Amino acid sequence: MRLIRLTSLSDGMVLARDLRTGRPGEIPLLRAGVTLSGSYVSRLRRMGINTVWIDDDLSRGIEPLPPLDPEERSAAEAAVSESFDRTARTLSTGGTAMPQRDLEQLTDTVSRIAASLAKVPEAALALGDLASADAYTHRHSVQVAVIGMLIARRHWYRDGWRDWMERPRYDGIEARLTKLGIGLILHDIGKLAVPPAILNKPSRLTDEEFAQVQLHPEAGVDLLRASNPSPLVVATVRDHHERLDGSGYPAGRTLESIHEFARIAAIADVFDAVSSERPYKNAAPPHVAVNVIAEGVLGGSLDPRVASAFRRVCLPYPIGTDVVVDGECLGVVSAVELDEPWVPTVRRMNGGEIEELALDLRHLDVLRRKPGLPALEAA
Questions:
Q1: Cα separation of 175 and 114, whole Å?
Q2: Helix or strand or coil: residue 345?
Q3: How much is the pLDDT for 115?
Q4: Are 68 and 120 in contact (CB under 8 A)?
Q5: For a Cys staple, 138 with which of 22, 80, 196, 308, CB 3.0–4.6 Å?
Q6: How far apart are CA 60 and CA 63, in angstroms?
Q7: Which residues contact 291 (CB under 8 A, 6 or more apart)?
Q8: CATH 3.40.190.10 fits 65-320, yes or no
Q9: For 102-120, how does the pLDDT look when each residue is reduced to its tens digit (9 = 90+)?
């Protein structure tokens, strides 16, 4: 199977995975096995869905693996949606805090996610899904948790986590992953205090509107205070928009004053925001999002050690995605090596026959334009 944009869809292609709008609890919009027609494509475009998984001769035998089973993802998104809805109702009636039971429920959700992530081979991961822009909030929370926990698992088991004396430690990793996951899944809870008209505005925000958005990390901490979460959870929620060079918000923290949890959250959050459909923009392909992270590292705003693990988890050309360069589709990725993610094996048609070749796209990796970063070249 492969993931293609609707603009590349031809009549008669067959849907490879159930197509959900992203709203938890709803039956799929279309079931796997449906033959896609022009009328289906028009309807999907109107709903803000721009990519679908299809089965065809070119992609036969290609099996990208989602990090979460679809039913497990749906359950996680439903838990987040229900929790956020209850908290929003609490706010609308004069309350000021997330109910304790919701934090407990989301802790259980994160534990299940962590157990699932441990089972999936990294090189086969396909992080993309089919959510439309109006399903962004709860989908984004789960996706950032998935990406951030994958990054942390890779980073901590390889290099250890750092204690207060900056010593690498390898104990208690699973417990730390759960705490990180809770912070990640709640990182945007403070956006419940931001007017929806601002969050969903399809055009550029005014300075006053952006100032309101910048309050959401502190608003999130306020919402969680009564539930007495771990200080690590608080640091993740409060500082996921802080940057190492002081360019972030809300406090302009720098370097040592930003906990590693928040540094992981920053990278996971940026990657998913760039590669997701939003009311005001289309999703960028994975290689663009990977390069946005690289530019943040080169500019001194994102942590290079965390980015090193990120580059082993979020690949520029994941299995099952089309490789498009200068507007031309060069084929579909059938295999990729973690040591050289910018040299995917691509399957394409040549003279009516299917062929596979290693396609060298290293010139598109922005980190290769800046020498002196060996930790990012081979994580």
A1: 10
A2: strand
A3: 87
A4: no
A5: 80
A6: 8
A7: 316, 364, 365, 366
A8: no
A9: 999 999 999 999 988 877 6
Angle, alpha carbons 135-137-140 (nearest 5°)? 95
Task: Write down the residue that tokens 């050289």 correspond to.
Answer: 340
Longest pairwise C-alpha distance within the chain: 67
- Cα–Cα distance for residue pair 191/345, rounded to 1 Å: 41
CB 9, CB 40: distance < 8 Å: no
Category of 268 on φ-ψ map: left (φ > 0), alpha (ψ -120 to 50) or beta: alpha
> Which of these, 53, 57, 112, 55, lies nearest to 79 by C-alpha position?
112
The Cα–Cα gap between 20 and 168 comes to 42
Tokens of 71: 């039913």
Q: Please give the angle made by the CA atoms of 218, 78 and 240, to the nearest 5 degrees.
A: 25
Between CA 96 and CA 286 the distance in angstroms is: 38
Sequence ranges of the chain with CATH classification 1.10.3210.10: 65-320
Go through the chain and tell me how many residues it has.
379
Q: pLDDT tens digits for 15-64?
A: 998 887 656 667 778 889 999 888 888 888 787 777 888 999 999 999 88
Report whether 332 contacts 62 (CB < 8 A). Answer: yes
**Cβ(321)–Cβ(335) below 8 Å:** no
pTM confidence score: 0.91
Q: How far apart are CA 360 and CA 355, in angstroms?
A: 16
Handedness of CA 179, 185, 188, 191 (dihedral sign): negative
